[in-house]
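Teaching note: in complex prediction, the entire set of molecules is handled at once rather than each chain in isolation. The prompt given to students was simply: 'Predict the structure of this complex.' The entities are:
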Amino acid sequence: MVVRFAPSPTGPLHIGGVRTALYNYLLARKHGGRFILRIEDTDQTRYVPGAEEYIIEALTWCGITFDEGPHIGGPHAPYRQSERKAIYAQYAHLLVEKGWAYYAFDTEEELEEMRRRFEAAGMVAPQYNAITRSYMKNSLTLPPEEVQERLQNGKYVIRFLVPRGREVRFYDEIRGWVSVHTKEMDDKVLLKSDGMPTYHLANVVDDHLMGVTHVIRGEEWLPSTPLHVLLYEAFEWEMPKFAHLPLLLRPDGGGKLSKRDGDQLGFPVFPLRWRDPSTGEVSEGYRERGFLPEGVVNYLALLGWHPSENREIFTIEELIEAFSLERVSKAGARFDFEKARWVNQQHLRAVPTARLVELIRPLWEARGLPPVSDEKLSMLIELAKERAALLPELIESVRFYYEAPTFPLSSEREGKLNPALVENLSEWIVALRELQSWTVENIEALVKHRAKSMGLPLGKVLPTLRLALTGEESGASLYHIIHVLGQGEVVRRLERFVEVYGVRPRV
RNA sequence: GCCCCGUUCGUCUAGCCCGGUUAGGACACCUCUCUUUCAAGGAGGAAACAGGGGUUCAAAUCCCCUACGGGGUACCA
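The expected output is the structure of the full assembly:
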């Protein structure tokens, strides 16, 4: 099995493209096949610098790797279509010789005029086809001498000659048989006047030359597949199998998820941050948002595919094992950011704390937070881990550590303080200061013991202490918080609290 | 407009090919439980076969029509 991912470097890869790459990758790995990256840069006007590097970096981050591609080479190099230009021209001319294609010389204005004319005659979207081509300037209508003359000038395109009266049928691995009549098809340009191929030609030629056995791509290609089928027939090449993946839809139901949706949806549509080189506009990525690559990949796999068992959480290796084209659904899938978060959370919980320390440290430093040892950081992460779905939440939920509470508290929170405890707090500070061994167990014992001797339930004691130490009403285990804060800091914070509330509690 | 593809809880989906299920799971939501609290966990709840015709003893499942959604309709991919 040989599959390929063939993006066009016109900007950042969006999340739907990542899924297409993922399904190809999964299949290649499952069947021990090869996976090729091919850059489809035949439209020179749409080339965006940095896009190719972005695509490779994004897929690498996701753990999607290739066996051949522009970045690693391979037996079918080059892998950029712009560098294969001569190959396509040769094959386009071959089709002309075989009578499957012809030269056309119409200018843009002439094409425009043709469309206007036929529209006026009642056609809605006139195409260059069996009925209109006879009115146009091409090697089918012009005398041979004029054709020769125009070819000398070098300004021509090569168009496919769609045969008449045929039903083109092909089997789609996901949708079953699809058929289209050739009267619905038009004479698509194969070779552009700049000598570059269009997608249709380049894709068929390269897939054949590179030995691709399974063409797995987005559903937007379904309507042009009949043309590709005819192209294989014209070249007398063996056809690959086709599979058209359902599209990723916007959560609001308004069409397919597109690059332009950017951040307006409230969640990233790109795997990595992207800075548009011409406008300077920056779009957020899943990586920067704090997703784990395994979380993104897992969620994406689930959008349009369902395993044979009722299970949602998979590592990439498990996905390789479980994936199959037969279980890909036909209908478009709406992106659900909440569920993506949940899937990521499941993975986050499984990540060893040591790795989280490595992931969090750069974020910690980027925020300019006070230095912490690896040991402290991993204690903090342990505390935050259970309630975080995304990486930055790991830092946000230990805010108490790097940000002392500010007093006075809001009146609502003051209402939750226990007056008896507040009055007695100076004695607690002494006890805490004198605690010999600062362990979670000892702290817990001390708190419980003093609460008991005061006749106060933990439900009164703990919230008050929490407010005094963190300013928050909820969060991780308070005994652990006290422990990680350290004896000195706990005493300092409580003393500050007493300065404000101790003498005459406002409660 | 025309062509192609699609349509099961709010969302992702199982079930459809090989008719007979209390139409299953997950996210989100609600209730209860555990917990100092939040989260997580546990238990439970509400929630769907687009509509209409056939075929059949029996249709989410097979056939047809309609509606709706999406994609395509470039010298873009």
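Point out the following to students. Chain A has a mean pLDDT of 93. The domain at 404-507 of chain A is CATH 1.10.10.350 (Arc Repressor Mutant, subunit A).
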